[in-house]
Structure to design on (501 residues):
């Protein structure tokens, strides 16, 4: 992974390889692509295995991960996180790995449960696809890979901003031709 | 910046701690403040002008007066002794506007407050607000002995840890049982603050949930000379005065707010230095110490120190 460019706006989340941190318990959340990152973390810090609890949003569970609770899809993540955080105490560390959409949603749910941002680490795995919110009609587009993209809710062409909402777990898409109606640049692939 | 307030009450709360109440001389309402705020109290102690910071302990919504609690430090520089011995009801004192460097983080679900001794004072103002609100809170106060404990009307559910009764605070235990979303606030001696914060970090509390306040009294040290480049003056700093106080004595413009090495307001650029700056503040990052100094608490040993003042 390359470090985030220094000129990124402050709301842009920092994704970096997961590092073991002190804490009495660990909650790990990953999709199929992120499971490798969790396995690497656990290999690096085997002590984490004893207290780790893993929510895995994937069809298949890799055999080398301990204490896995399978989660059928991101729509089931909220209930799974609420269950995992029952009685949780300060010192709990969260380790998130997977697509930007998954880790963005998981972070939003953890923050809503009261976790501090500093106790949540995130490692993006897989492609550069972004979870986007249309700021006009509020429709979420889960896996946007081109910029601009067409909002599946209102049909506007939206510019993919770097501005990120931690509450929504999504980047913001803003109408790209508001001042020049119809003048939409050719979409290009989003850089990682 | 300073306003004249009338001292209307001086009430001992314990052998060493005294409560003072200050009101507007004409009874006008004072500005509201927020829990954790402090004021600077100016004292003319013979030829020496002292300015000490004291946390406000009264209800932040009560505009009829400000209250502080002062612990007498017999080995201190003299400010608390002056308050205990010289300050009398009816006197007019110059008092700064409230400044808050120790507010509660309102995004927290629970506020865990840990106080050592007179470090309880900012929490007394917080408690006025917390008992009215619906945020969860806990308060742990450690004091040397019950006989020395000031009469502060603490809520019954505050946890008291008294050295002479063997109910010492088990910091790891207190920190281990806190629900998600708790913020920690510590006020007390430097040693106590460091011990509590180290324990919290070791237990995995993230930095943004940790808050501490310690007012440093500028400790004395060997006298030294500074050169103020902007005003083209050489200033002698005596053993018992701070660099900031020496600049003020000479009429050199120097901003300040907390006078305790915490807020950053008096940060001054060092233009030349042949010697060692004795950094005693909590504010400057290690890399900033190369060319900056906090004159409120820090000192100098060497042959030449030139400041941008």
């Amino acid at each position: 992974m390359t470090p985030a460019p220094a000129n990124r706006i402050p709301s842009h989340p920092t994704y970096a390889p997961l590092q073991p941190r002190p804490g009495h318990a660990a909650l790990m959340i990953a999709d199929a692509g992120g499971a490798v990152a969790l396995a690497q973390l656990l290999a690096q810090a085997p002590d984490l295995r004893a207290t780790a609890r893993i929510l895995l949003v994937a069809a298949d569970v890799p055999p080398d991960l301990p204490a896995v609770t399978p989660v059928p899809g991101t729509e089931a993540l909220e209930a799974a996180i609420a269950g995992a955080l029952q009685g949780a105490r300060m010192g709990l560390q969260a380790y998130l790995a997977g697509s930007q959409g998954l880790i963005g949603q998981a972070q939003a749910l953890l923050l809503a449960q009261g976790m501090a941002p500093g106790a949540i680490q995130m490692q993006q795995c897989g492609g550069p696809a972004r979870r986007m919110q249309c700021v006009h009609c509020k429709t979420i587009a889960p896996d946007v890979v081109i910029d601009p993209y067409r909002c599946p809710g209102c049909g506007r062409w939206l510019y993919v901003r770097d501005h990120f909402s931690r509450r929504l777990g999504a980047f913001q898409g803003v109408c790209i031709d508001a001042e020049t109606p119809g003048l939409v640049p050719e979409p290009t692939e989003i850089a990682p | 910046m300073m306003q004249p307030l009338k001292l209307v009450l001086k009430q001992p709360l314990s052998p060493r701690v005294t409560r003072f109440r200050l009101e507007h001389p004409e009874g006008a309402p004072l500005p509201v403040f927020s829990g954790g705020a402090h004021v600077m109290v100016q004292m003319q102690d013979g030829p020496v002008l002292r300015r000490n910071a004291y946390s406000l302990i009264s209800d932040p919504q009560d505009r009829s007066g400000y209250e502080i609690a002062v612990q007498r430090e017999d080995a201190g520089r003299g400010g608390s002794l002056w308050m205990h011995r010289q300050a009398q009801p009816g006197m007019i004192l110059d008092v700064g506007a409230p400044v808050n460097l120790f507010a509660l983080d309102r995004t927290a679900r629970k506020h865990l407050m840990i106080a050592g001794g007179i470090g309880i004072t900012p929490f007394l103002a917080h408690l006025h607000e917390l008992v009215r609100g619906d945020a969860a809170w806990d308060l742990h106060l450690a004091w040397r002995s019950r006989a020395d404990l000031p009469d502060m009307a603490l809520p019954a559910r505050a946890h008291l840890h008294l050295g002479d009764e063997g109910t010492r605070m088990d910091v790891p235990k207190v920190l281990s049982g806190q629900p998600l979303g708790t913020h920690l606030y510590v006020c007390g001696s430097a040693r106590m603050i460091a011990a509590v914060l180290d324990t919290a970090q070791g237990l995995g509390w993230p930095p943004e949930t940790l808050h501490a306040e310690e007012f440093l009294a500028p400790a004395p040290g060997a006298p030294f000379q500074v050169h103020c480049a902007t005003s083209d003056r050489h200033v002698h700093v005596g053993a018992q005065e701070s660099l900031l106080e020496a600049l003020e004595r000479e009429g050199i413009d120097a901003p300040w707010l907390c006078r305790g090495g915490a807020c950053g307001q008096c940060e001054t650029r060092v233009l030349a230095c042949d010697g060692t700056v004795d950094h005693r503040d909590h504010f400057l990052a290690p890399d900033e110490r190369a060319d900056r100094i906090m004159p409120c608490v820090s000192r100098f040993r060497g042959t030449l120190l030139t400041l941008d003042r």
